[in-house]
Amino acid sequence: MGAAQHNADIQYKESFITECSITNNVIDTGKNAVLNHEVEVLVSDQVPSDSPDEKAAYVRLILDGDYSTKGEPKASCKYHMVIQGLFSVEKDMPDVEFNRKLWFNGSTILYGIARAKMEVISTMVLNNGKISLPLLNMYELLKERFEGNEKKDK
Question: What CATH code is assigned to 9-146?
């Protein structure tokens, strides 16, 4: 089977950071540093597209966390980042399928971009080291959150 048979049929258009703050009280990350990390995924309604043959929407990730040193409560580096990405598909794709692709494929693509940006930005803030966000299985993360929301709604 070729990889083309598993094409996601979603196009990445652009991404940009809309909010980013890092509050650093750590001089050196060292070996005792622990990363606490949260990510929230949001998908917009459809937005106008540049092309009449496609439809588009945004995926937004909100990343919050802190990088702290064990045994030193004041030594921490807190971060907050909001990143948005624009994605498109062909106009004839059903809205339900497009929405699913935004949640799963769009969030996965955008999280990879956010990880890279966080590493670059944090190297400029920390004296030594960087914030390396963990790899995430977005499918499992979102599935768990959707199931949690369904239980709350009942």
Answer: 3.10.420.10
